[in-house]
Amino acid sequence: MALRACGLIIYRRLQAGAPSSKVGDNIEYLLLQTSYGTHHWTPPKGHVDLGEDDLQTALRETQEEAGLNSSQFTLIEGFKKELQYTVRSKPKTVIYWLAEMNDCNTEIKLSDEHQAFRWLKLEEACKCAEYKEMQAAFRAVHQFLCSKT
């Protein structure tokens, strides 16, 4: 059986007036570092529980892993990304929605599943993410956001 997980790619825009040389330079993405395995960096995500739909899973996992409830961010219409890859010889699908923080200074409260978090600009986020599918998702999000400004 294929594994299925859902999550949110969360970003914040730095305050207006911050020095920026090009469109999108003021955008940072939230990455969480796992406290298990290879300690990889990922947006908040997790497996779908019985009776949950995909978006409910993404919202629950974001609350559990980063301490963010849905009143603290805004889901961005028009973006949804499905990643497919193999984990331990099993196919896995991860679906991400996009969300913008309402307040860029909101506190992140990690669960025991994670040991650190970072807000990173696109290139730094891609380096930390390591996996090419996640890097492609960040690039697609960034292109989507920059095309809207």
TrEMBL record:
According to the UniProt entry, its GO molecular function terms are:
bis(5'-nucleosyl)-tetraphosphatase (asymmetrical) activity; nucleotide binding
Q: What is its EC number?
A: 3.6.1.17
InterPro entries associated with the record: NUDIX_hydrolase-like_dom_sf, NUDIX_hydrolase_CS, NUDIX_hydrolase_dom, Nudix_hydrolase_domain, Tetra_PHTase
Is Metal-binding one of the keywords UniProt gives this record?
no
Q: Which Pfam families match?
A: NUDIX
Which residue numbers delimit the Nudix hydrolase domain?
Answer: 1-142
Look at the named UniProt entry and state the broad enzyme category this protein falls under.
Answer: hydrolase
An example of a Gene Ontology BP annotation on this entry?
Answer: ATP biosynthetic process
Q: Which UniProt keywords apply?
A: Hydrolase, Nucleotide-binding
This protein's source sits in the domain of life called: Eukaryota
The Swiss-Prot or TrEMBL record lists the needed cofactor(s) as: a divalent metal cation
Please list the reactions this protein catalyses: a 5'-end FAD-phospho-ribonucleoside in mRNA + H2O = a 5'-end phospho-adenosine-phospho-ribonucleoside in mRNA + FMN + 2 H(+); P(1),P(4)-bis(5'-guanosyl) tetraphosphate + H2O = GMP + GTP + 2 H(+); a 5'-end CoA-ribonucleoside in mRNA + H2O = a 5'-end phospho-adenosine-phospho-ribonucleoside in mRNA + (R)-4'-phosphopantetheine + 2 H(+)
Q: What does this protein do?
A: Catalyzes the asymmetric hydrolysis of diadenosine 5',5'''-P1,P4-tetraphosphate (Ap4A) to yield AMP and ATP. Exhibits decapping activity towards FAD-capped RNAs and dpCoA-capped RNAs in vitro.
Protein family: Belongs to the Nudix hydrolase family.
This chain belongs to the protein called Bis(5'-nucleosyl)-tetraphosphatase [asymmetrical]
